[in-house]
Specification:
Largest sheet: 7 strands, mixed
CATH topology of the largest domain: FAD/NAD(P)-binding domain
Radius of gyration: 23 Å
CATH class of the largest domain: Alpha Beta
Structural class: alpha/beta
Shape: globular
Strand content: 15-25%
Bound molecules: flavin-adenine dinucleotide
CATH superfamily of the largest domain: FAD/NAD(P)-binding domain
Oligomer: single chain
Low-confidence stretches: 1-34, 230-238
Mean pLDDT: 86
């Protein structure tokens, strides 16, 4: 595994996505999973639907326990939302990814998998408002220097009022953001941004969409930092994270390698799920191949799975599944003939009239992502399936993005070497106020199938990160292994 990782970049032959298919033949002919090579006949065979972070992690832990497995992936590559794409000498991820060190066991496991290729990265982020750049997560001292004392005094007053309000639980993202930051800061930096990102007013978003974004700033740190300066800089300014040397896709490919390449079927779209007496009996792939299954783990979007059931679920379940909303992302990658655009890992754009939410510079995650004297900037445009931007062609997207970046003085036209677009469906489940209850009803309905489990972000309709997905996959496999052991005893 270590040799494979060390040779990872050299092994890439094509200019397309970085995938299992693109590796040297001596690396792709791994006949068996490294875990199961000496195992006896597996006790069970698991059919895992989708080969994103969740499907691959379930496969990884299942292989470790010696289970038989097949992963069915609709796309031509593994990794789902967490892939790395190659364009010439440049690499960029499908969305600005970082590996968070939140679960020591998961971090330890992934360090073991990637060896020295899981790098520690430390790069800050900033918010771009007009020509102003503000540190993110927000820092009072930085706000003072960029916005001026009057605006900060107003923000501090707002914050004080918000924090003195009686304690309560916050149902909406807007309530949570205003209580944490006060109205003026929340409005300028968070509420408009969230409306763009999710396509829903922040008053209609559940508080769980905040993820870790709202942690850190409180009254104590606000005043401490303002009085004592950078020495008092607190946890929320920490820009540290882990990152695979050749992009987040390297982690996905390492998981895939551990699953055993022969166990992964790409270009295999699940089209129907047959069931009888509370059990999934067969799955249909690509509208033609019908396969018997014993245990199924689905990481497909919840609505996609429900709408594939045959016989179909009750009409109210189908209607609810159609009401679930997912956000897509259009990526525009610009390859630039300059050493860097900024020193930041990401730049955030909260202003409503800017069509994108975030731009990231891959080389600030790992220097291997760009040639040393050149850089790339990848812009994220969140949208819905019916938005014009999701239907737009490459040239108009590139033109729209470059025009705005030039106006903001971030890049110059003459620096652009080339550009690419990439379309990422099902990037985020939209956690509005109704969807949590709806998703829970749908998940409850699916618990009626005794040999079915769900894993991952869009399958469980939760706003989770990769380390969450890996941890939950490990727990799921451990739970299933208990059932396998019990069955063996009976
Ligand atoms: C822009 C962006 C930035 C992010 N940044 C971070 C970050 O910094 N750190 C972090 O930890 N996480 C981050 N995440 C979240 C992380 O990418 C996800 O949590 C994770 O990738 C979810 O994996 P998954 O397997 O649940 O879903 P997916 O990756 O969506 O995988 C589902 C798979 O199912 C396949 N599929 C769909 N339909 C079918 C079908 N009918 N038949 C067969 N296969 C099918 C899809 O092709 C896909 O491969 C980010 C996500 C996005 C979108």
């Amino acid at each position: 595994m270590a040799l494979y990782c060390a040779n990872w970049r050299k092994s890439i032959k094509t200019t397309d996505s970085v995938t299992l298919q693109n590796r040297d033949s001596n690396l792709t002919t791994v006949a068996h999973s490294p875990f199961s090579a000496s195992s006896p006949q597996p006790a069970e065979h698991w059919s895992i639907l989708g080969a994103g972070a969740a499907g691959l992690s379930v496969g990884y832990f299942a292989a470790k326990h010696g289970m038989g497995l097949t992963l069915f992936e609709a796309g031509s590559e593994v990794g789902g939302s967490a892939r790395t794409i190659r364009s010439g000498e440049f690499f960029f991820d499908t969305g600005a990814h970082r590996f968070h060190d939140k679960d020591p066991e998961v971090t330890h496991e992934m360090k073991g998998l990637l060896g020295g290729d899981l790098l520690e990265a430390n790069a800050p982020s900033q918010i771009v408002c007009g020509r102003r750049r503000i540190d993110f997560p927000l820092s009072p001292l930085n706000l003072l220097t960029t916005l001026g004392p009057l605006a900060v005094a107003e923000a501090a007053w707002d914050l004080l009022r918000a924090r003195l309000a009686p304690a309560r639980t916050f149902e909406t993202f807007a309530d949570l953001a205003v209580s944490r930051y006060g109205y003026s800061i929340a409005k300028t930096f968070l509420l408009d941004y969230s409306a763009k990102l999710w396509g829903v007013p922040p008053e209609e978003l559940g508080s769980s969409v905040s993820g870790q974004r709202l942690k850190g700033l409180n009254l104590r740190t606000f005043f401490l930092e303002t009085m004592r300066g950078r020495r008092a800089k607190t946890e929320h300014l920490d820009g540290g994270f882990y990152y695979p040397r050749y992009g987040i896709g390297q982690l996905m490919d390492a998981l895939a390698q551990a699953c055993g390449q022969k166990n992964i079927r790409t270009r295999s779209r699940l089209t129907r799920v047959f069931h009888s007496d509370g059990r999934i009996t067969h799955i249909q792939i690509n509208d033609r191949e019908k396969l018997a299954v014993s245990r199924v783990i689905s990481s497909l979007p919840l609505n996609v799975f429900l709408q594939s059931l045959d016989p179909p679920p009750p009409p109210e379940i189908l209607d609810m599944s159609r009401s679930l909303n997912f956000r897509h992302i259009v990526l525009v990658a610009l390859f630039l003939n300059r050493p860097q655009v900024s020193a930041n890992a990401s730049l955030y754009f909260p202003e409503p009239d800017v069509p994108f939410t975030r731009a990231y510079e891959p080389k600030h995650r790992s220097p291997a992502m760009s040639p040393s004297r050149q850089t790339s900037l990848v812009i994220e445009i969140p949208c819905g399936a019916n938005d014009s931007v999701w239907q737009a062609d490459r040239d108009s997207l590139v033109q729209m993005v470059t025009r705005r970046l030039i106006e903001m003085n971030l890049i110059q036209e003459k620096e652009i070497l080339s550009a690419e677009t990439h379309f990422l469906p099902y990037a985020y489940p939209v956690l509005d106020l109704n969807s949590a209850a709806t998703a829970q009803k749908l998940l409850n309905y699916l618990t009626g199938f005794s040999n079915l489990k769900l894993a991952g972000r869009c399958a469980l309709f939760r706003y989770v990160s990769i380390h969450d997905v890996i941890r939950d996959s490990r727990l799921l496999v451990e739970e299933l292994m208990e059932a396998v052991k019990l069955a063996a005893l009976n």
